[in-house]
Amino acid sequence: MLVSKIIVVLIILNVQTIVSRASIVELASDEIDDFVKTLDTRVIYFETKDAQTKYPLFIEEYTQSAHSLGSYGVQFGKVNCSTENHKYCSEPSDPSLFVFRDEKLQRSFPIKKLNNEHSIVANILHRFLLKDELIVVQTEDDLKKILVDSKGKENIILTNVKEIGMKDHRNLLEVAFAYGDSFKFYLSTKLPKDMYGASSKLKAFLCKEKDCDVRHYDNEFRVISLASFIQSLTLPQA
């Protein structure tokens, strides 16, 4: 299972950087129901003249997000509100992205908060596809309880990021997808980085077979680098 997930992540990275670019589906109002009639996640941008004026570069970020999430089965659509009449062209008042699953609207996100590829990809992955793979923990007491409960059961990865929806958050999600069977992943924006002996953005607590020994990682936060570090933790320790 772990090997297959790692292979999937490598394929995703390859697809994102080389070929198989997912396209945005241009939708008429009467095509929306069929587009969202699926168990997979669908994202729709109702593009208004106001949105084009306020966020002229957004469509590029939206297009790149479609490329990145296509390998996860997420499809992106766009409705041109200059030619189509739909209620989401006028509500809410702020231009937004609408996320559907199983024909139902799950949530809308204001573009002013999800205005770049990393924030779009991170939020879609975390909230709809990988919500069980990465859990937010914000207090030292909660972390201590997690470590106590994990002794003899599972290994823990704790990562500090400046803000939800940034590039580090996105990269961590992709790694959590690959290694979720071997580690339980937690994310924090508030816990201090200098806990447990050293300052680091990522800490691995080896609680399954050891007394929660900690390993620190503070190098570049690219998917391949993170995966290499976490993979090294699965090897026999000297």
TrEMBL record:
Pfam entry (one): TXNDC16_2nd
Domain TXNDC16 second thioredoxin-like stretches: 129-231
Domain of life: Eukaryota
Ranges annotated as spanning the membrane: none
InterPro entries in UniProt: Thioredoxin-like_sf, TXNDC16, TXNDC16_2nd, TXNDC16_N
Signal sequence residues: none
Protein name: Uncharacterized protein
Provenance organism: Paramuricea clavata (Red gorgonian)
